[in-house]
Design goal:
By secondary structure, the protein is mainly α. Helix content is about 55%, strand content about 0%.
């Protein structure tokens, strides 16, 4: 049987706010509960990404209906299965960068240019867990900072996480090759990653880790 748009509309209406044409926080929580997804699970963020949602814990009629049409599903069991498959797929695909970038804009307050430390830390814990070997050290380090996280720092942390050796041995202070050139040549894992080619916060983190490892 083909995709039934009427079924998608009924599904939307079963979770939508009675006073507004959208699925609000309570409806999102009920829907994810019915899908056996913790609202803080990465699959919830994957779903928001795939339907191009604009605000956390809120799905408009257009986002929801058009999103499910694009995904080719018209029921909750089908949606749950598709989202689980997408979550596994993006971990090893180029789409992960798109998903990671989406998470920044999706969680940024409309009147703010940057993410708070707390929000960024929550996203990194959710998205980079198991991918970034120095994640716990990074989260502990940024917890001492008071400024917000600009988008360039957020985006480049993914490149850093995917490139850096756990012992920081490929972070070369005296290297002759800049990070932009490293990316262009695809040599990230075979050459030193030069200090100064990264955002200041990442340079400071490397200095922090190196000083911490020096015997007293």
């Amino acid at each position: 049987m083909g995709l039934r748009r009427t079924s998608i509309l009924r599904l939307f209406e079963s979770y939508a706010d009675s006073h507004d044409d959208k699925i609000g926080p309570e409806g999102v929580e009920r829907m994810f509960t019915d899908m056996h997804i913790d609202p803080l699970d990465i699959r919830g963020l994957v779903f928001a990404w795939k339907i191009r949602a604009h605000r956390p814990c809120e799905f408009s009629r257009k986002e929801f209906v058009d999103g499910l049409v694009d995904l080719g599903v018209d029921s909750l069991p089908k949606l749950s299965k598709v989202i689980e498959g997408i979550e596994k797929y993006i971990q090893s695909s180029n789409d992960f960068k798109s998903f990671y970038a989406f998470a920044y804009d999706y969680n940024r307050e409309p009147d703010q240019k940057s993410l708070s430390i707390e929000t960024a830390a929550s996203l990194w814990q959710l998205i980079l867990n198991g991918r970034f070997p120095l994640l716990d050290d990074w989260l502990q380090f940024i917890s001492t900072k008071s400024h917000s996280i600009p988008k360039d720092t957020y985006l480049l942390l993914l490149e850093f996480a995917d490139s850096i050796a756990p012992d920081l041995s490929n972070f070369d202070d005296a290297g002759m090759i800049g990070y932009a050139e490293v990316l262009q040549q695809g040599l990230t894992h075979s050459v030193g990653l030069r200090s100064g080619a990264w955002p200041v916060l990442i340079d400071e983190f490397v200095d922090h880790m190196r000083h911490r490892s020096v015997p007293p």
